[in-house]
Amino acid sequence: MSNEILSQSEIDALLSALTTGEMNVDELKKEEEAKKIKVYDFKRALRFSKDQIRSITRVHENFARLLTTYFAAQLRTYVQITVTSVDQLPYEEFVRSIPKMTVLNVFELGTLDGRIIMEVNPNIAYAMMDRLMGGFGASMNKIEQLTEIEMKIIASIFEKTLEHYREAWSTILDIEPCMQEFEVNPQFLQMVSPNDTVVVISLNTQVGEASGMINLCIPHVVLEPIIPKLSVHYWMQSERKAQNSVETEVIKNRIKLAEVPVVAELGTSVVTVQEFLEMRVGDMIRLDQSTSDPLVIKVGDVPKFFGQPGKKNKKLAVQILGHIERGDEADD
To answer: Would you say the pTM of this structure is higher than 0.70?
Structure first.
């Protein structure tokens, strides 16, 4: 409940009304109690939180953008598709809200149980078909007189949109949508129980001069297994993980190509400046390490391995014998 701060003049007016009897304290209490009571319709059970509805909205806003680009290229005319609303309501109410005769594309998602309905306003469907067949995109509602060929063409138009639906969901879940059925009478489709909750996504569609709605009906049973993935926290966490994994892979590849100096030390010796200045070709320097002792191999300036000298293919080489532990490293 929001807390409103009254000005001094409003407080004075309220006190004056109570004093003169214009306002009854008991009536105020009753009004306050009435505000606390909310009517709940059990037939319209809200199965999805606002957070989850927002996630579903984002997915279908992406789908709308993909459809706009796809249909504009295919039909070669002005196309604009936007998400108008996302509501959860009983399946029976959805059926009552759409025309008695309309275009119904029923498809499955592959990885999830259940089916989804894509209901397309006949005016839009016919305008798309007319434009695809070389016409001007005339809009008319002749859904009851569609020939078998026209039905096949319309079904094919929307079957090709399923690839874009798969892409729209790719940030949350990998799906494989597949068209199952084409129908024109919603009474012949009994997807779920009449009182079961469905999410209805309404897309306002403009194709040339024709306009109408495309409605996607998703039953709760379809989305139930992935409800935890529909939260904003999961969404952002997944995006962050994906981004981090990409950055990590880039860093790994760059590290693999980095060049570092590797030095095998035969031993060390301490000489005075005078001895150093008097050195001549052929002089010998005594090292503080026996020929039987392993060599210390440094990566950069850090001792990392033990090794022994030798030859491979007539070239000098060093064989790695072991890794220098931190204690051994500190001793060096």
So the answer is: no
